Amino acid sequence: QRRPSEPRSTWRSSEEAAMPRWRCTHQGQCSCAWEAKEKDIDRGGTLYPVIDRDKVIGLNESKTGSAKNCIKPHDSRTDGKEFVRSADGDGELIIHIPFTVQVKLKSFSVIGGDEGSAPKAVKIWKNRDDIDFDTAEDIEPDQEFNLVVDADGSIEYPVKIYKFAGAASITMFFTGSHDDEETQINYIGLKGEATKDKRQIVFATFEARALEKDHKSLTDQHVSKSIQ
Questions:
Q1: Biggest alpha carbon–alpha carbon distance for the chain
Q2: In angstroms, rounded to a whole number, what is the distance separating the alpha carbons of residues 183 and 121?
Q3: How many angstroms separate the CA atoms of 60 and 92, rounded?
Q4: Nearest residue to 114 (alpha-carbon basis) of 74, 65, 155, 78
């Protein structure tokens, strides 16, 4: 509660009062305040056990069905024998990752290929199985990131948790690589919390397919972009 003598502009809630005072030097809109608060949030455990790996789908893969190769246990993250790579001469790659239960995604990490083939940016959507290379231009992602080269998966990218709560799936659009015509991904690691309610994911899947007559879903487009 603020004191009667305190102007409204100086009052802070108990939650804000617990945060350190600091000043952002950026101009315009930025996410500094949110990022400072998020640093204290528990990132949760690996979501690998609740990823429906056999149903992971990729668009513009050089080898059909290889998208699931980058979904592997954390202990196997540096094993570069299995990976997914975009089609020759085209660095764009879309990967749709479904879960067996609803999850709250908190962060992710990515290990790319060498020789400049690591991804440089990614756009992420929650609960959208209709994202392809056409709709990705029209539908605003829930969040997007610039990526750095990470050889061991030690860099975690925190997401805006409120945007990724209740996720039945996520779709990741890698828009290109750092210094190569193709993009290669060896590992995608997801962290967060999983629920035990499988009934909710059934409802989410039903909702996602409700407009199936109006568009093709990712499952209908399990082909390489290069041959479309």
A1: 70
A2: 11
A3: 7
A4: 78
Residue 96's nearest CA partner among 63, 120, 71 is 71
Q: What is the pTM of this model?
A: 0.72
Give 139-145's long-range contacts (Cβ < 8 A, gap of 24+): 141/173, 145/121
Write the burial class of residue 150 (CB in 10 Å: 0-12 exposed, 13-18 middle, 19+ buried): middle
CA count, 13 A, side-chain hemisphere, 131: 27
- pLDDT one digit per residue (tens) for the chain, 228 residues: 444 444 433 344 444 444 443 344 444 444 444 344 444 445 679 999 999 999 999 999 999 999 999 999 999 999 999 999 999 999 999 999 999 999 999 999 999 999 899 999 999 999 999 999 999 999 999 999 999 999 999 999 999 999 999 999 999 999 999 988 999 999 999 999 998 765 454 444 444 444 444 444 454 544 445 334
